[in-house]
UniProtKB/TrEMBL annotation:
Organism whose genome encodes this protein: Syrrhaptes paradoxus (Pallas's sandgrouse)
Keyword terms of this UniProt record: Cytoplasm, Disulfide bond, Phosphoprotein
This protein's encoding gene: Obscn_3
Protein location: Cytoplasm
Protein name: OBSCN protein
Leader sequence residues: none
């Protein structure tokens, strides 16, 4: 996208110009979240893989946006996004 601009070919006495518009590819899931089962008190990791590295990810439980805390750890490495839920309780289902 950052390559979008007007480009010029200059031969001294004349110029030719063209405008380049780069359309961003949509971000897709290469690997979606998988259902997990875990015993109470344990830790679980939910992982998904995106088609574009370092794409901002928003983790949600129902309609609630999750933020990093003692309970939730949010990680992202390139195209892989992870949510770690610590000390899982039945209300986390």
């Amino acid at each position: 996208k950052s390559d979008s601009d007007t480009y010029t070919c200059d031969i001294g006495d004349a110029q030719s110009r063209a405008k380049l518009v780069v359309q961003e590819m949509p971000v897709l899931f290469k690997r979606e979240l998988q259902n997990e089962e875990v015993k109470e008190g344990k830790q679980v990791k939910l992982t998904c893989e995106l088609s574009k590295p370092d794409t901002p990810v928003k983790w949600m439980k129902g309609d609630t946006v999750l933020c990093a805390s003692e309970k939730y750890e949010l990680k992202q490495h390139g195209t892989v996004a992870e949510l770690i839920i610590r000390d899982v309780k039945s209300i986390d289902a």
